[in-house]
Amino acid sequence: MRVSADRTVCVGAGLCALTAPGVFDQDDDGIVTVLTAEPAADDDRRTAREAGHLCPSGAVRVVEDVEGTE
Prior knowledge:
Oligomer: single chain
Helix content: 25-40%
Shape: globular
Radius of gyration: 11 Å
Order of helices and strands: EHEEHE
Distance between the termini: 8 Å
Structural class: alpha+beta
Number of strands: 4
Number of helices: 2
Strand content: 15-25%
């Protein structure tokens, strides 16, 4: 899994940081920052997926690894 965020699209809603605090944070302006681009823990992976679905601006992107390449 690879996680990224488009800071130019982010509206600062904060759902990513609230949902997956081990993966995302917000800077002083409320814009998303990625703490862990390749989360290894199952819980971080699960919450990163959820954050990707919840992001209202579509700034958070989660790309699953192709099976057998992790």
